[in-house]
Amino acid sequence: MRRRLALLPAVLYALTIATLSHIPGLRPPPGASWADKAVHVVLYTGFGLTLALALTAQLPHRPFGKVALWTFVLGALYAASDEVHQLFVPYRVADFLDWVADVVGIGISVVLARRLSRRWNRWIHT
Q1: CA–CA separation, 14 vs 31, rounded Å?
Q2: Which of 50, 54, 45, 51 lies closest to 124 in space, CA to CA?
């Protein structure tokens, strides 16, 4: 049961990101583009962490390297789909540098998840 519940935070996080992306005209104040990129890094670090821990729970006997690769690929694809989604939202734009910031966040999350994965697996599978 815990294994299935481990998916819930990642799914809820993805839905939250999609909801925020659907707000027309949501953007940082003029001249604060660095703040926008920082928000992307932080949001996707959280998303990547929940995704990595969910995958760790689903694939308990896989080496963490495979989990990390899947986390990175799925996270980057989700970030790309999020940017494409924004093309269809009024007053929003798809930005390659936003995607890069998202991928940086996913990368950070993989490093953090590596530190947490053993404890997480013990808790999930007890």
Answers
A1: 28
A2: 54
User: What pTM was computed for the model?
Assistant: 0.87
| Sign of the CA dihedral running 52, 107, 46, 83 | negative
Buried b (16+ CB within 10 A) or exposed e, 64-83: beebbebbbebbbebbeebb
Convert the pLDDT of each residue in 72-95 to its tens digit. Answer: 999 999 999 999 999 999 998 899
Which of these, 80, 14, 84, 83, lies nearest to 43 by C-alpha position?
14
**Cβ neighbours of residue 89 closer than 8 Å, sequence gap 6 or more:** 21, 22, 23, 24
In the predicted structure, residue 57 carries a pLDDT above the cut 70: yes
SS3 for the chain is CHHHHCCHHHHHHHHHHHHHHCCCCCCCCCCCHHHHHHHHHHHHHHHHHHHHHHHHHHCCCCCHHHHHHHHHHHHHHHHHHHHHHHCCCCCCCCCHHHHHHHHHHHHHHHHHHHHHHHHHHHHHCC
